[in-house]
Amino acid sequence: MKLHGFTELPLRIWGLFKPVRTKTVWGEDIWIAFPEGRMIHRNGMYDSGEVETFEYLRDRLNSGDTFLNVGANIGFYAMLGAYKGAQTYAFEPFPKTFEILKKNAKNFTAVPLALTDKRGEYRMNDRGLGQRGLNEITFDGTVKITATTLDEYCKEFDIRPTFIKVDAEGSELKVVQGGIETIKRHLPALMLEVNDTQAKPVEAILYPLGYKCVHRKWDVVYTHSNI
Predict the structure, then answer these.
(1) Is residue 191 within 8 Å of 211, Cβ to Cβ?
(2) Distance (Å, whole) CA 71 – CA 78
(3) Domain spanning 2-224: which CATH class is it, in words?
(4) Per-residue CA distances from 116 to 33, 103, 128, 153, 155 (Å)
(5) CA distance linking residue 42 with residue 70, whole number of Å
(6) Half-sphere exposure for 15 (CA within 13 Å, toward CB)
(7) Which residues contact 51 (CB under 8 A, 6 or more apart)?
(8) Where are the domains of the chain?
């Protein structure tokens, strides 16, 4: 496969150190990093269970939505939301990943913050350019980041989300805990990357509010019964 005159192997080696540009499946330019972005380079989208995530968002987001992509990484799903016409906000706290996100943020708002249950300064680990989607908040991390809560951010900027996607490497529950008032007020659909064990405390919060699980694959989707 070639891209801008390069074969894939040299491009992948270069992409370990610098972001490279390729195309999404819908034809938009996107900056990626290897090896994490190799499937976007090959197929225009992520692989494995992410196919179902992509199709779910593609088929449901529209121009009437306000879409929050929490843990946006380089912004693939934020770009999809903007392409579908949704007003889109992408949250990515890791500085070097945020640099790539900004390059992709032509039609959405890139926010250099983590969302959790309490605002403040935190630390993240650094798995390198090609695996930054696996970076997580940890006590012994080497990279300083800033965090706020979903409630505080939405209140400050008068954001009324209709769909929130959270891929926060194990911090999904804390994102929900920090956004209870926003969730109660606006009843957004919630797409969370959680396994069955991680889903239980989330559901203990959401189900009493009238939410139900409508999709349980790679990601789990909850919608309110009144929507």
Answers:
(1) no
(2) 10
(3) alpha beta
(4) 26, 25, 23, 11, 15
(5) 25
(6) 25
(7) 45
(8) 2-224
Provide mean pLDDT across the span 12-35: 81
Give 170-206 as a 3 state SS string.
CCHHHHHHCCHHHHHHHCCEEEECCCHHHHHHHHHHH
Contact 61, 80 (CB under 8 A): yes
Assess whether pLDDT exceeds 90 at residue 31.
Answer: yes
Per DSSP, the residues of the chain read -EETTEEHHHHHHHHTTS-EEEE-TTS-EEEE-TTTTHHHHHHSS--TTHHHHHHHHHHH--TT-EEEEET-TT-HHHHHHHHTT-EEEEE---HHHHHHHHHH-SSSEEE--EE-SS-EEEEE----GGGGGG--B-TT-SEEEEEE-HHHHHHHHT---SEEEE--TT-HHHHHHTTHHHHHHH--EEEE---HHHHHHHHHHHGGGTEEEEEESSSEEEEETT-
Confidence of residue 141 (pLDDT cuts 50, 70, 90): low
State the amino acid at position 193 in one-letter form.
E
Q: Are 189 and 163 in contact (CB under 8 A)?
A: yes
Cα–Cα distance measured from residue 76 to residue 102, given in angstroms and rounded to the nearest whole number: 12
Its pTM stands at 0.88
pLDDT tens-place string over residues 193-212: 998 889 999 999 999 999 99
Determine the Cα–Cα distance for residues 62 and 106; give it in Å rounded to an integer. 18
